[in-house]
Amino acid sequence: KFTPRVFSGIQPTNHLQLGNYLGAVKRFVEMQNSGIETIYCIVDLHAITVWQDPVDLQNATRELAASYIASGLDPKRSILFNQSQVPGHAELGWIFNCVARMGWMNRMTQWKDKAGKDAEKASLGLFAYPSLMAADILLYHATHVPVGEDQKQHVELTRDIAIKFNHDFKVDFFPVTQPVIEGAATRVMSLRDGSKKMSKSDPSDASRINLTDDADTVAQKFRKARTDSEPLPETLEGLKDRPEARNLVNIYAALAEMTPEAVVAEYAGQGFGTFKPALADLAVSKLSPIADEMKRLMADPAEIDRILGDGAARANAIAEPILAQTYDIVGL
Ligand code: ADP
Ligand code: NA
């Protein structure tokens, strides 16, 4: 009943980090190039669930658009746009606030992490975030959502909302969307703390590789990455209790488009004194062309705004009839 359509989004906060690139953007490009219809959003309404300086937010929005394009997203083959420019996201988000249950939201681990100890002081928007995310996806009847592992629970909640809406209104209107979480880098870990995922909102810049880092910074961050002092084993099995080492192998594998098995086979018996510089060289060779292209694109902000405006018009053309039908179903 539903034609295959891909939707995903990233928040315009800080610079993209290697986990966003390997776990999300690189996959977005692969899906675009596979010929399926792809819609990629800059989710600025999600960004403001925590405080954003308005000028920084605008700059981060343009920079994320530049990161998308420099990474290989083609504004002609994919729809690239900014969430706040398509009003249907907020409108459907409200309807889904009335479908989703408080208890569902309370179980979201990201809410618990982000709200911290003082949940009373978190914004209401942060609590309702997964309901807006469901609206982002279902506003386009998207069937597939490529994301990192940290977003799995939110996509499951999107499925729950679609099922409850269809059930409550006795319709088969929203698809039950599939998360697409594949590859060696679905959860890239912090370089400083093997128990946390790499994040662009981590206060420690040394915990992540930014797409905008220069070659020396990349080399230094990998050199200082926490690891044990054992050489790499013959097989992946030997990395079972070595999460930091496993993380670097996964990063290498995703960048080189190899399996983690092939990476340990290649470096078996070598220490991090050899592996880390090889990883840094590989990362620089893959990321520096993207950073250069981002700089070129950022020099012409009017052209970025034009691309996003065109994308918003095309996104809106898909969203409007779906929202209108939703209003009809609900009786609005
Ligand atoms: P961040 O936590 O860096 O602010 P976002 O919440 O904006 O990132 O997530 C954007 C996309 O990047 C999502 O699909 C998310 O699952 C993915 N992602 C974020 N961090 C990682 C990571 N460390 N490893 C793999 N994918 C990630
Ligand atoms: Na995240």
From TrEMBL:
MF terms in GO: tryptophan-tRNA ligase activity
Sequence motif: 'KMSKS' region, positions: 197-201
Record-listed E.C. numbers: 6.1.1.2
Subcellular localization, as worded in the UniProt entry: Cytoplasm
EC class (word): ligase
Binding site for L-tryptophan: D136
Positions contributing to ATP binding: Q11, P12, T13, G19, N20, G148, E149, D150, V188, K197, M198, S199, K200, S201
Predominant subcellular localization, coarse grouping: cytoplasm
Reaction(s) catalysed (UniProt annotation): tRNA(Trp) + L-tryptophan + ATP = L-tryptophyl-tRNA(Trp) + AMP + diphosphate + H(+)
Annotated keywords: Aminoacyl-tRNA synthetase, ATP-binding, Cytoplasm, Ligase, Nucleotide-binding, Protein biosynthesis
Highest taxon in the source lineage: Bacteria
Gene3D superfamilies linked: HUPs, Tyrosyl-Transfer RNA Synthetase
Job of this protein: Catalyzes the attachment of tryptophan to tRNA(Trp).
Similarity remark: Belongs to the class-I aminoacyl-tRNA synthetase family.
Subunit structure: Homodimer.
Designated name of the protein: Tryptophan--tRNA ligase
Gene: trpS
